[in-house]
Amino acid sequence: MVLQVSDDNRVRTLTLNRPDVLNAFNEELYLATATALREAANDSEVAVVLLTGAGRAFSAGNDLVEMQRRITDPAFNQQGSHFSTMIDALTDLPKPLICAVNGVGVGIGATMLGYADLVFMSATARLKTPFTSLGVAPEAASSYLLPRLMGKQNAAWLLLSSEWIEADEAQRMGLVWKVCAPDDLMHEARRHADVLASRPISSLIAVKQTMVAPTRDGIAAATAREIEHFTELMGAAANSQALSEFTGRRGSD
Fold first, then answer.
1. C-beta contacts of 182-191 below 8 A and 24+ residues apart
2. Model pTM?
3. Residue 252: its pLDDT value, please?
4. N or C: which end of the chain has fewer CB within 10 A?
């Protein structure tokens, strides 16, 4: 089971569960997460969604083995991707989303935080968006959401540099709300989730809708721009070389 789902006191916890590959998103996990978000949205007993990762990672991002397969296997590429299915589900989620970043968050494991209403992060966790090191473009409307959330220069460094961001720096930048000791992370995230879950769901939805409504058109436009650039760059020389180096290292492990 690539995604664990549990309910307690009107809080639905989704746990990314591919710990052997640091919870990297493959097509199965994209679809499972999207489905779980849709189900939480439609469940009248769920007030808050809490998202975290199993093992030592939050998510290592897109499964790069699958990314390379998209370049080398036209039949697989023609099947499309559930990446956009998950992004649509995140965009449409009408209830509060809390992320508890328990370990490394890479690529979509970092950019999806732009959709969270509250982000808690372990003091030992780190974030990275390796788009330039992979020779590709941003994703998940991060080119729009992150400057709004973090300010232009903080977002520029995160998206352009492909460098690691430590937890305290992520908090200073505004991407993370609270940094916690590793053993306290889930307790703190859950404590705040319980506070929200004690409020009327109709009111939670109204507040969130009024906050996110101004961003909907911007997310859609940014997503279209990013897809255009990503499609152009994926499989080009820089991307092909980066993926070959990655799979080569993986094969020699």
1. 182/102, 182/122, 182/123, 182/124, 185/100, 185/101, 185/102, 185/120, 185/121, 185/122, 186/52, 186/100, 186/102, 188/120, 189/50, 189/52, 189/98, 189/100, 189/118, 189/120, 190/11, 190/50
2. 0.92
3. 47
4. C
